[in-house]
Amino acid sequence: MFDCSQVSRIIEMAWEDRTPFEAIENLYGLNYSQLVNFMRANISAGSFKAWRKRHAGRVTKHLKLRDPAVERSHCKTQYKNR
Question: How far apart, in whole angstroms, are the C-alpha atoms of residue 9 and residue 16?
């Protein structure tokens, strides 16, 4: 279904605090429950548990819960030039 680079990018986006689940759905067609199954299948059990714990109730991961002041999808220092 997804090639290696897509799998890697989906996992990266799922871990990012400011990337909403809706962005993953728009780009890759995975709704939240499908993303949970995807993550369960593509990362280790320990990493999956840590991911679920980290994002449980995190409002920045859901557009409907996100503060309208949050306009960026990433931290301002995330992509700074080296």
Answer: 11
